[in-house]
Amino acid sequence: MMGKLPLNMQRPGKFGNIKRGWFDIGGKRLFLRSKWEANYALYLDFLKEQGHIKTWAYEPDVFIFHKIQFGTRSYRPDFRIENPDGTVEYHEVKGWFTKRSRTQLARMKHYYPEVKLRVIDRVIYGDLARKLSKILSFY
Question: What pTM does this model have?
């Protein structure tokens, strides 16, 4: 059916309080997996407007762990950020850590040590939300 999420995305999953869906970010409609990701996207758009970052994208890249045959064999960070100097870094918004997410982060560090990955945990996110939620009209 048009306009309806697939069944696997309709179920609440492990974390039933997470609101995933379509969000308006800087005039674009994006499907994001949580309000935290949507709010962080608003924050990245704000940084782009201020000239602090050049651009950002949501989940554009996948890192494959080629030597792993079973279990967690890949990882897709939430955001790819390009800085004004041309360097690239990835940001992962993580309110909860599962066994799988811990494995992904550990394998990223092991197999891709040259990739800069920043985890936005509940402490960092909470600090951003307190400082910017009124300015950016967070969800």
Answer: 0.83
